[in-house]
Every structure is written in C-alpha cells, then in structure tokens.
Specification:
Length: about 100
C-alpha cells in the first residue's frame, strides 16, 4: 500500500508523522492490495478559531474509492475519526 501525507498551511511535526504511520500500518494487511493507495490531507482552515484542523482520508484501489473528512481540534482526533469511517466503509464492502 502506498501512503501519501500532505500538510497544507502548516509544517508537520515528527510526532504527528509517527502517529500517522502507527495508525495506518494495519491497513496494509486489511487492504492487502499492492495497488492500494491511501492519501491523507491535513490542513489548518481558520487559524484563529477552534475546530480548525481539517483531515481528509482517501483510499483508492481496485474497488470503489473510500473517503472520510473531519474537522476537529487536533489532527490526531481528526485522523482517528476518519479512520473509523474508513473502517465502516471497508466492512460494508466485505459484507457484499
């Protein structure tokens, strides 16, 4: 699985990079597809307000594209919520 992480309007800390790697590692086994690709886009939308960290996760492969988007106080929280949505989408695909 190919993982692409993009930081928009901020510089990503090493701690956040490690967190992303840790959380997405299990998807290599779940998707078990060499052509699968996960793209994570993180951006700061309104620096002067709360809930200003937007996280988008897109998973592409041989099957249908999966997408999740959340705006939260922290990127970690946004990533966790997005990955929960992706998990539900994967389960729905497996049930078919």
């Amino acid at each position: 699985m190919k993982l692409t992480v993009k930081a928009i309007n901020f510089e990503m800390a090493e701690r956040l990079e490690k967190y992303i790697e840790k959380k997405t590692k299990r998807y290599e086994k779940i998707l078990n597809n060499a052509s699968a690709e996960m793209e994570i886009r993180m951006s700061v939308v309104k620096p002067e307000t709360n809930l200003n960290k937007e996280t988008k996760v897109r998973v592409m492969g041989n099957g249908p594209e999966m997408f999740a988007e959340k705006t939260c106080n922290t990127f970690e929280e946004g990533l966790d919520l997005c990955l929960e949505i992706i998990d539900r989408q994967i389960e729905k695909l497996k049930d078919r």
